[in-house]
Amino acid sequence: MNDVQPVIAVRDVTKVYRLGTVDVPALRGVSFTIAPGEYVAIMGPSGSGKSTLMNLLGCLDRPTTGAYLLDGVDVSRLGDDELAHIRLRKLGFVFQGFNLLARTSALRNVALPLFYAGLGNRERSARAAAQLTAVGLADRMGHAPSELSGGQQQRVAIARALVNDPAVLLADEPTGNLDSQTSEEIMGLFEDLNRTGRTIIMVTHDEDVASHAKRIIRVRDGRIVGDEPTGQK
Amino acid sequence: MKLDAYWREAMSVLLANRARTILTALGLVIGVTAVIAIRVLGAGMSGAVGGLLGALSERSFFVVANVQQADFTRAALRLNDLQRLQAAVPNVVAVIPLGGARERAEYGHLTPRLAIGPEPDERYATSTPLRFGRKIDADDVVQARHVAVLSDAAASKLGITSDPTGTSLRVGEHRYLIVGVLGKSAQGIIPVNVDYQVAIPYTVYDREYVRGHAILAADVLVADVGQIAKTQGAVLDWLHTLKGSRVRYQTFDRQTFDKAIDGIFNVVTLVVAFIGAISLVVAGIGILNIMLVSVAERTREIGLRKAIGATRGQIMLQFFIEALALSMFGCLIGLVFGVAIGALVDDLAIVKLSGVVAPIPWLSSITIAVGFATIVTLAFGTYPAWRAANLDPIEALRYE
Questions:
Q1: For B313, nearest residue in chain A (alpha carbons)
Q2: A8-229 architecture in CATH?
Q3: Would an 8 Å CB–CB cutoff place A167 in contact with chain B?
Q4: Could you report the predicted ipTM of this complex, rounded to two decimals?
Q5: Could you tell me the residue ranges of all domains in chain A?
Q6: Cβ of B307 and A164 within 8 Å?
Q7: Which of A215, B35, B174, B188 would be a feasible disulfide site paired with B369, CB 3.0-4.6 Å?
């Protein structure tokens, strides 16, 4: 395991929020590494610090102390624009609420990150179409989110997260708004992606969902209280 | 960063949210429409009033005894004074005493009272177009022929409907051969008629009406219009030499009138354009408002855009270009409405009423309206763009 460079290395990371004059610690010193191709679930009750951890891993926020190496680069002290650049190139986000642009076709939604990457219109469309086909929505490219089912919307969101070929796919309660059958579909898609070598990190509070991952990191009161494989192949 | 890609992205956002787009642009549409229409109307009105003097020759000026002097009667001139003036001052072609008389006319069985007055030959005469015949010519003046040109009003009072040239009418004690009839005179918004009902050669008028009478105002015809200002000075100098320097006269020419009228209308146009500008500022504040609402409404969208890697600069640029696109959309529609309304009112009201087609400064009107609207939009579009760009992505994504 040591001969492979980890895609994520978190060392002694703390995060303290200032609420008025009171310091509220959300993370009290967290360390772990994730190798390329892993499929990790981060679990914990609300207030455990798992959302804070997810925001740090997603480069949406910076740790108060400690280091975070993403793909070998310490991103814990980067400026806003550099972080935006990292998010654009290295990370893909999937949210609980899908966060698709309303009244905008699936194709354009998926192509959005490529717009900020500065790609031309034709190449954006081509790559977005290929990614939508890969998630099984080849026949829904022109549909607006309101014309798609919840499961289809989340597939569009996943296609959008993957269109930049990120090093890590981050999913925040990806099945939180879906019924159990659709959840299984999405989990199946995640497993397929992981099987092709995609690194996936998923935050959830649902044991059933977490059991699809190969490894579960449990967080409580800002500390890691468990880190073990699930036995999934 | 490719601006055309941002432009396309902005257009797709605006098109996807048509209702919001149209409501936002409405203020600009009204503002731009108002500014263009107002400027066009101002120019049309100013031109129409300027054109009101169109019937007044540019090749002459008035010399008038100043009424604000101690002994007004000393300023009175005689016909031979005018003849000497004409001979003495270079560039003066003729000096025609201003005045006219009302006389009983007789034509067929009709005997209306008509205003008879002096007229120079056609080179200097009124610009009112002819309906029948010809104007008074140089020969008529030199030979002092008893010929007359009737105005449109006189013709109708005399019951003339077909060409009367060759017939004659009696006015007062003399008989005149009718050589021409004028059409409707070009009148401005203020109806001023500069044409006599019965115009006769001024040499005839001098002989029959002026001789022996005091003259207090005269029309001085000049050969070279370019020298008209110099000639006015020379005429005043000559009169002072004749009457003594304490007797005062003043002169008026077409340009003086035009300048005065232009001055008035420039002020009117300026004031009205200012009102238009205020409406554009209000429109700008409307855009500011709706863009701020838009930022609030689209907080999650902005959060998402930042999460997937948009930088602050990119978000700012995007919102800014959206504001710009909105402004161009509003301007374009406002431009169409403004030009349409301006042209329609200019045609229906001003041209029809005054008979004057004034040059309309379309290009400058459009430039001013669109330029100002763009400045307003950019000024008021910047703050919402800045607000959007500085949203914290975590907070924004959580926003409900």
A1: A81
A2: 3-Layer(aba) Sandwich (3.40)
A3: no
A4: 0.91
A5: 8-229
A6: no
A7: B35
